Amino acid sequence: MNKLKQVLSESFQICIGILLASIGLKAFLLPNGFLDGGATGIAILISQLFELNISIVLLIVSIPFLLIGWNTLNKKIVLKSFLSITALAIFIHFENFTSVTNDKLLISIFGGLFLGAGIGITIKNGAVLDGSEILGIFINKRFGISIGKVILLFNIVLFSITAFLLSIEVSMYSILTFLITAKVIDLMIEGFEDYVGLMIVSEKPNEIETGLIKEIGVGITIYKGSKGFGQRGQKVHDEIIHTVINRIDINRTYRLIEQLDEKAFIIEFDINNVKGGILKKYLST
Predict the structure, then answer these.
(1) Which of 14, 27, 167, 173 is the most exposed place for a label (fewest CB within 10 A)?
(2) What pLDDT is stored for residue 22 in this prediction?
(3) What share of the chain is helix, strand, coil (3-state, %, to 5)?
(4) pLDDT tens by residue, 224-245
C-alpha cells in the first residue's frame, strides 16, 4: 500500500513538473524564438531552422540520450524519463497558450522559472526531461569528467551555434534563460532552506554544546579527536562538535561561540541535502 502511494505521489508530481515545463516552453520561449540549454534547446533550434513540429523533434532528439542512459542508468529511471519526455511532447502539441509578454527580459526570466521548476520537480521524482543530464552521467562514468562540466561544454557549443545560425541577441537571452533554469532546478531539488555545517574545536565544549541547543535550537553530534597540534600546543584529545544550521542563524551562532570561546577553531562547509533530525523542527528554547 505504501509503495502504491509513493508511485501515485511521484506520478502526480511528475505531471505537475511536465505542466510547468510545458508552460515555460509554450507560453514564453517557443512563441518568441528563445532557446533553453540541453536537448530541449537542440530541439527548439532544429524546429525553428527547418520549421518542424517541436513535439516530434523533441522526441527524436531525446532518443539517442535515452539509449545512452539505457546502459548507464537504472532502467526504471530511463523508462520514467521516456514517458515524461513523451508526455511533455504531447502537452506542448495540444496546449494552446498565447504568448504572455513581448518583453524579452521577462520572457527569459519567467520562461526559465517555469522550465526550471518543471525539470527540478521531475528530477526530484526520479525522471529527467532533458537528455543532457544523461549524457553528463555517461561521460562522467566513462572519462571521469564532472557532469557539470559536460553540461556546460554542451551548452557552450549549442549557444555558439545559435549565435551563428540565428542571432547573437537570441543566443544571449537564451544563455540567461539557461542560467535561470539551472538555478531554479537546484532550488527545487535542494530546497529553499540553505544549510551549512559547522565543526567546532574548543576548550569549552560543554558551554558551546549547551548554547547551541538552548539558544540556537539545533542538534549536535560529538566526535572524539586525538593528537592534534595547533597554536595552543599539542592536544591529547578534544571533543569536536558537529552541527548543521540554517544559514539565517550563522551570524548568531558565530557570536555565541565567540562569547564562550573566542579562540575556538571553526570549520564551515556547505550542505547539499539534509533529512530527518531536528532541522525541520527546532528544539524548544
Answers:
(1) 167
(2) 92
(3) 65, 15, 25
(4) 877 666 555 566 557 889 998 8
